Amino acid sequence: MQLVVARIGRAHGIKGEVTVEVRTDEPELRLGPGAVLTTDPASAGPLTIATGRVHSGRLLLRFEGVSDRTGAEALRNTLLIAEIDPEELPEGEDEYYDHQLIDLDVVTADGTEVGRITEISHLPTQDLFIVERPDGSEVMIPFVEEIVSEIDLEEQKAVITPPPGLIDDRAEIASSREDAADGAEAGGKEIGGEETVGEES
After folding, report:
1. Quick one: 177 exposed, middle or buried, by C-beta within 10 A (0-12, 13-18, 19+)?
2. Whole-angstrom Cα distance, residue 153 to residue 52?
3. Which of 51, 59, 156, 167 is deepest in the core (most CB within 10 A)?
4. pLDDT of 198
5. β-sheet bridge partners, residue 141
6. How many CB atoms within 10 Å of residue 185?
7. What is the pLDDT of residue 125?
8. How does pLDDT run along the chain (201 residues), one tens digit per residue?
9. pLDDT at 185
10. What ranges in 69-185 are assigned the alpha helix state H?
11. Beta strands in the chain (DSSP E)
């Protein structure tokens, strides 16, 4: 099974080093010297890591065969992909690989169905669940302990305790507008059809 472990950023210096956006909780395992990674686009790889170091809080990598800034800059935005055993689990007790979370049902603590995880978005500040709701719309749920209270892989579900407005703001907006319009329905339906819940975090 393939796992995206990093995205290559800007060239650093003139000797072929690049900054990388790490997308794994195990960079020392996946991004160590000697690791051979496939790439997206495939034409950029495979790449073998020659050296790695941390500089000003950022991981810098240099690949075999890439020895100057021009070669490094040509790799910008390339995804680095590791091949892992599907049965392998992360070392941390509360850590998960993306493929373990995709397709989990998302429910609230009282059992209310929210939707199904279709994608994990890795942002610099936090990870987000992209959840497809039964009506086909999407909601973004921050993967933080305060909101995601339980991941149950056996039951194939993620239990959340969403703050007010995270998943139900469309209904509240529609309701308030209907009240303001003295029961007119058109405004509420329009908001319900167009708004993307959880766009801002």
Report:
1. middle
2. 34
3. 167
4. 36
5. 129
6. 11
7. 74
8. 677 888 999 999 999 999 998 877 667 778 889 999 999 999 998 999 999 998 888 889 999 999 999 999 999 999 998 887 655 555 555 677 777 788 899 999 888 899 999 988 877 677 889 899 998 888 899 988 899 988 888 889 999 988 887 876 544 333 334 444 444 444 433 323 232 233 333
9. 44
10. 69-73, 98-101, 169-180
11. 2-12, 17-22, 36-40, 47-55, 58-63, 79-83, 105-108, 113-122, 127-132, 138-142, 148-152, 157-160
CB atoms within 10 A of CB 72: 25
Residue among 17, 63, 58 at smallest CA distance from 38:
63
Alpha-carbon span 22 to 29, nearest angstrom: 12
Can you say whether the dihedral through the CA atoms of 175, 176, 178, 182 is positive or negative? Answer: positive
Q: How far apart are CA 169 and CA 63, in angstroms?
A: 47
> In the structure encoding, which two tokens stand for residue 153, read together?
């892989």
What is the predicted pLDDT for the residue at 32? Answer: 87
Polymer length in residues for the chain: 201
Separation between Cα atoms, residue 9 and residue 173, nearest integer Å:
40
Q: Where are the alpha helices (DSSP H) in 27-155?
A: 27-30, 69-73, 98-101
For residue 64, the number of C-alpha atoms closer than 13 Å in the C-beta half-sphere is 12
